[in-house]
Amino acid sequence: MDVKSLAVTRFQFAQSVFNHKIQEKAADRKYGYAKWFKFTQLFLTLLVITILVAQAAGFNNSIVNLVGIISVGFEIAFIIIDLTYGFEKQATVHKSYALKYLELRVKYQALIADIMATKGCLPINNARRDALDEAYNMLSDAPQTSSADYDKAQRALGTIGVSGGEQYTWSDEEINKFLSPQLRIVPKTNTKKK
User: Fold this and answer.
1) What is the DSSP letter of 169?
2) 19-29 tens-digit pLDDT
3) Average pLDDT estimate for 27-43
4) Do residues 95 and 27 make contact, with C-beta atoms less than 8 angstroms apart?
């Protein structure tokens, strides 16, 4: 087994797992915004229609007119914000990148299995690893996520750490959490001879 290639592949696998999860959390957040905006727009639209019907029925009151004007203003503002930011479209883009990272995750996992199953260094495995690394790097244009998305991804994957701080590396134990038992690396124990 090519230990160094395995280490690099495991690291990239863990990165793919984490990026998959963080993009999913960002998509969930943006879908939440989109849902809230849609509900609010629906409520404002129904309010404006109700006021227009009341005014058409001859109920012309200065309070009703004021509420109608304010409702229309809010509705226009919400439409502009929705058209400007397009939270549903943003969520769809995050979900698309999550699926791309998921695909890489599966391919890295298959490569880990192949590296572990072979003796020594196989050029074909190195070529596959390089191709996957290139595909991973092509995803660098993924949409930005928030620190809240990052924290939620850490919690979902159980990698928040003891201090809850930033993590820049992956331990074998953390990577093992993402892999099936057959693909895990058993940590070597230091046993001293007496």
Assistant:
1) S
2) 999 999 999 99
3) 93
4) yes
Amino acid type, 124: I
Residue 157 burial (10 A CB sphere; 0-12, 13-18, 19+):
middle
DSSP label of 158? T
Rounded CA-CA distance 93/86 in Å is: 11
Q: Within 13 Å, how many C-alpha atoms sit on residue 62's CB side?
A: 0
Phi-psi domain of 187 (left: phi exceeds 0; alpha: psi -120 through 50; beta: other): beta
Query: Angle 27-169-16 (CA atoms, 0-180°, nearest 5)?
Result: 35
Q: Can you give the pTM of this predicted structure?
A: 0.81
Whole-angstrom distance, CA of residue 193 vs CA of residue 68: 85
Q: What is the tens place of the pLDDT at every residue in 145-187?
A: 999 999 999 999 888 765 555 566 788 888 999 999 999 988 7
pLDDT of residue 85 exceeding 60: yes
- Kindly report the length of the chain: 194
Closest to 182 measured CA to CA, from 117, 103, 106: 117
